[in-house]
């Protein structure tokens, strides 16, 4: 079974109150949360997980929920170039989900094998009114998908047989997908936005690392919140609770260091895993 190396790729920032990701806790604390992706390499295959935000979704310097943002396809290309890669070198692109800030560079990789959950396509093509108002999905994405030559949709959990396992984790979207990655160090889990940041899975955390590498104080969730902290972008709380339970069993240990989330700054700071 292959061992993989993981590199976290920096695709830009979305400056937002922490409270937006965790039920209003620390509404007054504003951070440059990251757009990020992950490059997985086993010496033979280059796998890219998520492709950031498209520049057209940043209007007058603001993106989703009116938050100040920087990013775009240039960031994805630069992050790959920094690893000595160009889009044609990517063999497989996997999507944790198809939101505008995770699939913005989809059209950059027409020749790669592209993998996402079947139910994610359903959500993309049939967004709820609330999802349309917030423009969670980019109206460009359905058209971009037609440019891809090799799409494999999976329906549920799937063992790739090469040290990568895919797990369906709905709640934030219908077809959320986590990727368990076997490395020399142990099993990491790439979660996408289920959760967005580690505190949703680990409500009692008291510190969070920010982009300059320093650690800041954050407020642990009161006991009444229970085992997980939800947010306003979880559309199905029952599914999300099950997904959080499932995620808690997927990594080497139930410890934040094994969970590579969609928007945590520490992942970009540490950068290399496995
Ligand atoms: Zn999302």
Descriptive report:
The protein is of the alpha/beta class and 274 residues long. The chain has one domain (5-273): Metallo-beta-lactamase, Chain A. It has six helices and 15 strands. Strands 1, 2, 3, 4, 5, 6, 7 and 15 form an eight-stranded mixed β-sheet that branches. It is globular and about 45 Å long. Bound molecules: zinc ion.
Please specify the SSE layout and strand pairing:
Layout: E1 5-17, E2 30-41, E3 46-49, E4 69-71, H1 73-82, E5 92-94, E6 113-117, H2 118-125, H3 129-133, H4 141-145, E7 150-154, E8 158-159, E9 164-168, E10 177-182, E11 187-192, E12 207-209, E13 215-217, H5 237-248, E14 259-261, H6 265-270, E15 272-273
Parallel strand pairs: 3-5, 5-6, 6-7, 11-14
Antiparallel strand pairs: 1-2, 1-4, 1-15, 2-3, 8-9, 9-10, 10-11, 12-13
The structure holds zinc ion (ZN).
Zinc ion (ZN) binds at residues 97, 99, 172, 193.
Could you provide a short overview of the structure?
With 274 residues, this protein is of the alpha/beta class. It is built from six helices and 15 strands. Strands 1, 2, 3, 4, 5, 6, 7 and 15 form an eight-stranded mixed β-sheet that branches. A five-stranded mixed β-sheet has the order 8-9-10-11-14, with no helix packed on it.
Q: What is the averaged pLDDT score?
A: 96
CATH topology: Metallo-beta-lactamase, Chain A
Major sheet: size, sense and barrel closure? Answer: 8 strands, mixed
The number of strands is 15
Structural class: alpha/beta
Ligands present: zinc ion
Gross morphology is globular
Number of domains: 1
Give the end-to-end Cα distance, rounded to a whole number of Å: 14 Å
Beta content:
25-35%
The helix/strand series, from N terminus to C terminus, equals EEEEHEEHHHEEEEEEEHEHE
Query: CATH architecture, please?
Result: 4-Layer Sandwich
CATH domain class = Alpha Beta
Rounded to the nearest angstrom, the radius of gyration is 17 Å
Specify the number of helices: 6
Which stretches are poorly predicted, pLDDT < 50 over at least 5 residues?
A: none
Which homologous superfamily in CATH is the superfamily? Ribonuclease Z/Hydroxyacylglutathione hydrolase-like
Instruction: Please give the oligomerization state of what you see.
Output: single chain
Helix content: 10-25%
